[in-house]
Amino acid sequence: MRTSWRKLSLSLVAAASCLASASCREPVPPASAPSSTSGTAPTPATPSVAPTAATPSAAPPDTPELLELQSTCNDRQDAAACARAASLLDQAGKGAEALSWWQVACDFGGAPSCIEVARRSPPPAPLSSSPGYRRACELGLREGCLALGFMAEKDGLQEQSEEWFAKACMLGDSGACGRSGKKNLAKAEGTLREKCAAKDGNACVALAGLPGDGLDARLRWLERTCAKANGFACFARGQATPRARRDERAAWMKKACALDVKVACPAVAPSE
């Protein structure tokens, strides 16, 4: 059962990564680190993960590097050090003890470690109750939200699935927006506008690609925001322009490039 859970978990995260990557859609500009979305998305039950100075038992090899990482993890509540210690233990074939250190890293706010915990833990019932993926999503890692969306879908929980996808959408994932359900889109649009105005590139692109009515209004908003020296809004406006209208598309990309959005520069017309 654990083997099949690991395979399902990995496949779901792979699907999530695909939705968030250039392999599923056009590249998006670099964006700021995800910020807290408290109050902007459905709040799932929060697992008991308050940071504690838990000290999993150390396992060979007790190298100076491992011992130092474990000490830093607990003394400073340093999630990166906890995760590195977990990786060293995992490489040494100490999977169970590695998992305990990834859990501490997750408790200390290391969202990628929460994904690792979810992948390596026994399957919950229902699948979408996974504490690791929930914690990752709450910490602003959209891959966690996406995985929960797919899992809730598999559980037959369509409304919950749409809420998790809406959370991923509000974290700037364009692919998730189309799976968010009509009732969640208005809230998602408001959040994306706020983040885009703060120069979150992924949010700008997700806003331009929102399904449903109101596209013209969203495009006009992006144009006004671009005029305020927001290069990511210019880039998103360009991406929303059909490729057949090459000159218009290139003009928006030129503005974005001039505002230091490097990913837009290759799309500027060669004659420019």
Please, could you describe this protein's structure?
The structure is a single chain. The chain is an all-alpha fold. It has one domain (2-51, 109-263). The chain has 14 helices and no strands. Helix 4 (95-107) packs antiparallel against helix 5 (111-120). The longest helix is centred in the N-terminal third of the chain and has 18 residues, at 2-19. It is globular and about 60 Å long. It starts with a helix and ends in a 14-residue tail after the last helix. The model is unreliable at 1-8 and 10-54 (pLDDT under 50).
Report the mean per-residue pLDDT as an integer.
Answer: 83
Using only CA atoms, what is the Rg?
21 Å
In sequence order, what are the helices and strands, one letter per element? HHHHHHHHHHHHHH
Q: What gap, in angstroms, lies between the N and C termini? A: 58 Å
How many distinct beta strands?
A: 0
| Helical content (DSSP H or I, runs of 4+) | 55-70%
Helix and strand content put the structural class at: mainly alpha
Shape, principal axes of CA atoms: globular
Largest sheet: none
* Domains (count): 1
- Spans of at least 5 consecutive residues with low confidence: 1-8, 10-54
**DSSP strand (E) fraction?**
under 5%
Number of discrete helical segments? 14
